[in-house]
Amino acid sequence: MSTPAGAAVARGRGERPADAHAQRAPDPAPAPAPAVFLDRDGTLVRDFRHGADPAALTLLPGVAPALRRLQAAGYRLVVVTNQAGVARGLFTVDEARAAGRHVAALLGAAGVRLAGYYLAPYHADGVVPRYAVAHPDRKPGPGMLVRAAAAL
């Protein structure tokens, strides 16, 4: 087998042919998917009366078609909602989560898939010690947005 003269000389100096170290360019990182962060009460659903049955939550007119258009355009949809009623002792965090599941089900039945649902049960003036704090998750703090963005 014959070897090109340049290759033999290169090997003689302890080197390899130029293409021996060639590397494939790394695949570019996938572009991040755009997202829309949505409030719940008064934006997606009528304001929810504290202590009411979550089944009483109804989507506001036009919400489902608007969200379907955003979804079709490639946007991921994330709900971020303050639920100070938990900190104020008006309802439990489990009841707040049940209301969130109901909203997600209403949207799902309308052809809208949520990429995430985040709630902040905190309020500095609350009466439930665990939630009566100035927490960065509570809007306008960035906590829920930061966590949601990391999860997307």
How would you describe the overall organization of this protein?
There is one protein chain. The protein is an alpha/beta fold and 152 residues long. It has one domain (34-151): 3-Layer(aba) Sandwich (Rossmann fold), CATH 3.40.50. Helix content is 32%, strand content 11%. The protein is built from 5 helices and 3 strands; from the N terminus they run H-E-H-E-H-H-E-H. It has a 3-stranded parallel beta sheet with strand order 1-2-3, sandwiched between helices. Strand 1, helix 2 (63-72) and strand 2 (76-82) form a beta-alpha-beta unit.
SSE order and pairing:
Layout: H1 5-12, E1 35-38, H2 63-72, E2 76-82, H3 84-87, H4 93-109, E3 116-120, H5 143-151
Parallel strand pairs: 1-2, 2-3
